[in-house]
User: Fold this.
Amino acid sequence: MATSQALVETEVGAVRTLGEIRSAVGNMRRFEKDLFLNLADEEALLRYEKSWKEQIISTRKSMADIKPTLESTEQEALMRMETGLSGYQKAVEGIVAGIQRGEVNDPWRANQLMEPSKADIRAADGALSDIGKSVAARVDAAVDHLAVLQRQALVWMATVAISILVLSVGMGYLIAMRIARPLQAAVSAIERVAAGDLSQPVQHPGKDETARVLAGIAHMQSALGDIVRDIRQGVGSIAVASSEIAAGNADLSRRTERSAANLEETAASMDELNSAVHHSANCHDPCGSPWMMEDTGGVRASAGRGRSIL
Assistant:
């Protein structure tokens, strides 16, 4: 495309140079007429002759500039123009010399002497017209070709842009999945832990940030599981100890009840003993009577039973 752009610029430059040549030829013909019309005024004659020669030089320079940009057929036309221009220049210079020698004294005579060179002028004009048409046709073709290339470039750019867009969307989707799915897994794991479910393991594949988050949640879940197990074991131990304490309390309660019954029996025996002693003290019989001995033996037997129970 850059080559086509340069080609179009070259063709446009050739058209511009052709315009300069046309302008110089027009000025050249105008100064020629002014030169013939003012041939009686020597100062004006010299001024217009100088201007005419400057246009001749400018025309030849522009022709030399445009020649490298022309094709073979156009260069042939340029050579015809050069031949016609040389014939025209030779004719005008001859008339000017005749004016300076006094051989040409009026414009009519000058135009009459220019008549044979008009064919050269027409040949130069025709060659210039042919060059202009050919260059214009090449410019139009180059512009059309450039337009085609521009359309192709636009299609290519649009295709590339769409491809980049599709690729960007695909990459964005993949990146979102790589982030969204692990985050969703992290949310689900946190919700399960919050609900008290520590049975499901937390998967954390990869080494990126989301994987590290999942790994942290997995470690937290494992630590909470250990704590719960320790608490359950502690609760179990406490339950066993409580059962043992309850059994000991029940046994102690039974023994206490038995002790209380024995104490009551002992107290009754003591009451009997006191009664017997009191009765013995008030008795008129000798203390060594058989009744006294029998009553005292019974009291001692009851006290012995009370001690054995305790």
